């Protein structure tokens, strides 16, 4: 298990916390693998009723570790990131997310696969895929235009505009915006604990019904996005963008025609 994950069990509530504060909880391959294993095991463990996913009171996650993207880009459906995506996509029990501070890249797209999402006023959500020479991932190219309309989705996915916790709640990506990280975690926990009082099979059946429409289409889109994302990670545009981040300079795309 990655040293950057913290797992806590309290009755049927499993809290999975990303904990790599010096890198804003950037997700390494080991973290993805660990998160996938925790979810796969929790899905099989009948004593787990609900999962709470958080990065703590100050930061959700800055997304994929950009050094990993440059040095060891994931390839294919057997990569750690895909294992994690599949584990969350197929997770049969409720997942509640508590989001404070940055939620970048997969930090935003994974929220589309959670059941309840609570965000802090401090939350800054962003999907800078194109800015990094990449393309949308994890079904966001399908889900967001349907949820927000093409125009607003284009600002988020093509321009990589960031948006606030309040906007996430207004647009239906999150349930509610709270004043700070502590209040967000407390609310997420309170709502997650409600599942402990509910009949578990009825919850599972209902989640399955809610997620069923268009599910196989979405799975296919996630795989198509993943294949293109993997190709784009190796493109000169992405290498320029990722190198610029590591070198703390502005990327220069002027030579690309
Ligand atoms: N991968 C690797 N390292 C990252 C990272 C990432 N995704 N995000 C942040 N870090 C590192 C920084 O390099 C820095 O490391 P250092 O102290 O060793 O130099 C440290 O985390 C703190 O980041 P910093 O940028 O100084 O914090 P900030 O509060 O000014 O900004 C973010 C926070 C998240 C807005 C900013 O770091 C950012 O934009 N990160 C990249 C996000 C991204 O593009 N993710 C991938 C999407 S596909």
UniProtKB/TrEMBL annotation:
One GO MF term attached to the UniProt entry: delta(3)-delta(2)-enoyl-CoA isomerase activity
InterPro entries named among the record's database cross-references: ClpP/crotonase-like_dom_sf, ECH/Chromodomain_protein, Enoyl-CoA_hydra/iso, Enoyl-CoA_hydra_C
Alphabetized UniProt keyword annotations: Isomerase, Peroxisome
Subcellular localization, as worded in the UniProt entry: Peroxisome
Entries under PANTHER family matching the protein: ENOYL-COA DELTA ISOMERASE 2 (PTHR43684:SF1), PTHR43684
Family: Belongs to the enoyl-CoA hydratase/isomerase family.
Entry protein name: Enoyl-CoA hydratase
């Amino acid at each position: 298990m990655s040293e950057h994950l913290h797992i806590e069990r309290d009755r049927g509530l499993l809290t999975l916390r990303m904990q790599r504060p010096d890198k804003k909880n950037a997700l390494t391959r080991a973290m993805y693998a660990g998160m996938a294993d925790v979810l796969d095991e929790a899905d099989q463990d009948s004593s787990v009723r609900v999962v709470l996913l958080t990065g703590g009171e100050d930061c959700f996650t800055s997304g994929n570790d950009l050094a990993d993207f440059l040095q060891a880009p994931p390839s294919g459906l057997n990569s750690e990131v895909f294992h994690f995506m599949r584990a969350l996509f197929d997770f049969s029990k409720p997942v509640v997310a508590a989001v404070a501070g940055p939620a970048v890249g997969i930090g935003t797209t994974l929220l589309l696969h959670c059941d309840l999402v609570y965000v802090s006023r401090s939350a800054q959500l962003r999907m800078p895929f194109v800015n990094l020479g990449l393309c949308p991932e994890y079904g966001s190219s399908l889900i967001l235009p349907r949820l927000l309309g093409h125009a607003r989705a284009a600002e988020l996915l093509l321009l990589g505009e960031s948006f606030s916790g309040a906007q996430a709640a207004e647009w239906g990506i999150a349930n509610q915006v709270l004043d700070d990280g502590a209040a967000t975690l407390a609310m997420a926990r309170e709502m997650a604990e409600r599942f402990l009082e509910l009949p578990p099979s009825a919850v599972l059946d209902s989640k399955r019904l809610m997620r069923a429409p268009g599910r196989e289409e979405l799975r296919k889109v996630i795989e198509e996005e993943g294949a293109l994302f993997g190709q784009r990670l190796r493109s000169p545009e992405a290498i320029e963008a990722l190198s610029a981040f590591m070198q703390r300079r502005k990327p220069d795309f002027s030579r690309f025609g």
